[in-house]
Amino acid sequence: MAKIVLAGGSGFIGQLLSHHFLAKGDEVVILTRKPAAWQTPARQIYWDATGPGPWVQHLERTDVLINLTGKSVNCRYTQKNKQEIISSRVNATQALGDAVRELQRPPRLWINASSATIYRHAQDGPQDELTGEIGTGFSVEVCGKWENAFYAQHTPGTRKIALRLAIVLANEGGVVPYYLNLARLGLGGRQGNGLQCFSWIHARDVIGSIEFLMQHEELEGDFNLSSPRPVPNHHFMQTLRQALGISFGLRARKWMLEIGAWLLRTETELLLKSRWVVPTRLLQAGYQFQVQTIEEAVRLCLLAKRPVPVLSPKFEKQPQKGKDLSYSLASSNVQTSTYEKDLPYRRMAQTHHR
DSSP character for 349? Predict the structure, then answer.
């Protein structure tokens, strides 16, 4: 049984990982600003993600520390939001680094989230960890400062990996409900010119690749977590419509997206940037992707959600300001996922159909 600590683990990806590790019988500790905000058999520990506190002791004898902390980028890029997006990531990473250096037995592996959006807008060729070109703009700045803060932490006894995550597809949440709703409302046509690349990864492969990286102790540094088969936006939207049995979807031109993004208090970059990202290092290391195509990924996203046990949290200690706040819940019988083997890697088709 391994001990897994998920910093900022109460979000979408944190819940996916928590369910997986608990199903294996691992001990899962979640560092969160809002313990018991969601129900889970994992142990939840309060932390403010900015400095030391009683939470540090829970990192002792940890096998894997996974940091997912950061304010959502699904917002308008006002100066206030920009500052919070960057500081929430950098401060949490620095706080974890300070904590790791204090431990007698630090984590064997520290995995820090990042994003595949660190690469430039690309329609002329794939971007990978070896030859990919770093882009410009605010989202790239966020990724750069996040990764710099991570690698600046001097933790000689801990292996470190930065996960450059593509858009995660799963029936448990994330962006999938948003896209499905657009298609059901007749708005599932291409966005912009539809030629921007959509790099994706199914939740099964998020879990599978993290397990792979945990097992291969020789691996460290940057890893792209993205499918080897990204597709153009128009192909993705067409796949959604076909899966739902919808023949028609209105196209959303750029000016329409600008208005919609303003009304929804978000940014069009999340839809219009061409992210052509491939996982060269994972493939070279021998990882086999389990979800082979965007068609299979969408089909899996339409399956009924797996049942999640509903449990009432039990206080180990009464919540007090400045004190350790932790919750211990009874174990649950969450079923493990089954994976299929992937086909050999093929590059994204460069012929785009309008």
Answer: P
